[in-house]
Amino acid sequence: IIQSGExxxxxxxLVGGGIYFAETAEAAEDKxxxxxxxxxxxxxxxxxxxxxxxxxxxxxxATLREAGYDxxxxxxxxxxxxxxxxxxxxxxxxxxxxLN
Length: 100
What we know:
There is one protein chain. This protein is an alpha+beta fold. 13% of the residues lie in helices and 32% in strands. It is built from two helices and six strands. The protein has a four-stranded mixed beta sheet, with no helix packed on it. The chain has a two-stranded antiparallel sheet with strand order 2-6.
């Protein structure tokens, strides 16, 4: 992120290899599997597929688009909703902060 200025999707995650976001810095810290940096970004969710934590399945950018959606929102998480996009063009990084 720091070198390229882009966020790239991972290879795995709650609903597949995507780019994951939370609504607040606190929620992001609770959800994170590692620490180091906090990214503040504008995220274009477009048409969102809302799913419950109990309905989780793997998605890819292609399967999500085939279903007519641009992003996934996982609801009923104890840390708050989790938003997932699968294309780096849906993310505009505003700020990267180092966490202490």
